[in-house]
Amino acid sequence: MTDPSDSGLRPWSAGPSAKARNAVQRSVTALLDELAPERVLTRGERIRLPVEQHRTPTGCVLQAATAAVSVSWFAEASPDAALGELRVIVWRGTVSRRGSKRESATMVREVVLHPLERPLEDCLWRATDGTEYDTAALAAYCIALLEDQMRADHG
């Protein structure tokens, strides 16, 4: 009889609970709400801000004149990321949105983060370099990345 631990296969384990998935989704929504709150539709013209905020159901783009940061949530990223994956990308230039014909942007930096289940109520995010963030700190980090790129473009 062979030892199952020698087979190289992992024993079957249940995926993340519905409670864990819901906590992560609330954390993603809170992050997106902080970075790019959903707009209320109005008939008047929008006021142009120094940083435009564009929101999608699974992400957002913060677009400045010469730089941008995009945040994208992938709920079913890979078997290694059972709770999903968040990608924060810093861009030089203008990020094109669907249907627009603008100059293209160049990716400067990418940060990949995974949600941690510990604690469920205040989901933490861990970057591939091991740095951990709560949702508010991650929002501040995304804004700081954009500001750093804007300074680099002007310096």
Question: Which keywords apply here?
Answer:
alpha+beta, 7-stranded antiparallel β-sheet, 2 helices, 7 strands, 25% helix, 28% strand, disordered N terminus
- What is the chain-wise order of helices and strands? HEEEEEEEH
General shape: globular
Unreliable residue stretches: 1-12
Count of strand segments = 7
What order do the strands of the largest sheet run in, or round the barrel if closed? 1-2-3-4-5-6-7
Number of helices: 2
Task: Compute the number of structural domains.
Answer: 1
- The helix/strand class is alpha+beta
Average pLDDT over all residues: 81
Describe the protein's architecture and organization:
This protein is of the alpha+beta class and 155 residues long. The chain has one domain (17-37, 50-154). The chain is 25% helix and 28% strand. It has 2 helices and 7 strands, in the order αβββββββα. It has helices at residues 18-35, 135-154, and strands at 52-56, 59-63, 67-74, 85-92, 106-116, 124-127, 132-133. A 7-stranded antiparallel sheet has the order 1-2-3-4-5-6-7, covered by helices on one side. A hairpin with a 4-residue loop joins strand 6 (124-127) and strand 7 (132-133). The protein is globular. Residues 1-12 have low confidence and may be disordered.
Describe the protein's topology:
Layout: H1 18-35, E1 52-56, E2 59-63, E3 67-74, E4 85-92, E5 106-116, E6 124-127, E7 132-133, H2 135-154
Antiparallel strand pairs: 1-2, 2-3, 3-4, 4-5, 5-6, 6-7
Helix pairs in contact: 1-2
